[in-house]
Design a protein that fits this description.
With 190 residues, the chain is mostly helical. The protein contains 10 helices and no strands. It is globular, with a radius of gyration of 16 Å.
Length: 190
């Protein structure tokens, strides 16, 4: 985890565009979990969540110009898009909530132009994986952190950050537009 935290720190210092790229890619990987939850429960609005997600992509060419009230309205809307895990006490609801939280992190990053939220977004991916892994049996913290899925996510995020740091401003959009495997693609996790 130390190496990832160091990489996130380096990314935070690289500039807003690089941070936007990282958060947008992570949110894109969590988004399919929201779609799955919405399809199973008829709750939420995947199209609206996707519109919010696209703000990350468009911000690389032109930062959206909203006032504080508009940013706050979008963040409040995300609260309505996210499931209440008390109403939906399933792992799938937790994954969907993490997808909403990642989009909220993106909105926070865009509105405040402050990359302090990068660790939060990175952690959301680990939180979803932790729930997934523990669905199949309770693991202690050491076993959980050494689980192949957790190590794989660590390697993915470190590699992504290295790509982003090596990229020019013009190449960041290409990184965002790449196809990435969903974080929780059931067939690839079993």
């Amino acid at each position: 985890m130390y190496e990832l935290n160091k990489q996130i720190s380096d990314l935070s210092n690289a500039g807003l565009s690089h941070a936007i790229c990282f958060v947008t890619v992570l949110a894109k990987r969590l988004y399919p979990s929201y779609i799955s939850f919405s399809n199973h429960t008829s709750f939420g609005d995947p199209d609206r969540l996707y519109e919010i997600l696209l703000l990350g992509e468009s911000a690389l060419t032109s930062l959206p110009q909203y006032d504080e009230a508009q940013w706050q309205a979008m963040r409040t809307e995300l609260l309505d898009l996210g499931p209440d895990t008390e109403d939906y006490p399933t792992a799938e609801a937790s994954y969907a909530l993490d997808a909403c939280a990642a989009c909220d992190t993106l909105l926070e990053l865009l509105s405040k132009e402050d990359s302090n939220s990068l660790p939060r977004c990175a952690q959301l991916c680990f939180d979803s994986l932790s729930v997934y892994v523990q669905e199949n049996g309770i693991l202690d913290d050491a076993a959980l952190s050494n689980h192949p899925l957790m190590e794989g996510e660590m390697n993915f995020q470190i590699g992504l950050i290295q790509q982003i740091l090596a990229a020019s401003e013009n190449d960041l959009l290409t990184i965002i537009r790449r196809e990435y495997p969903p974080l929780l693609h059931r067939r690839s996790l079993m």
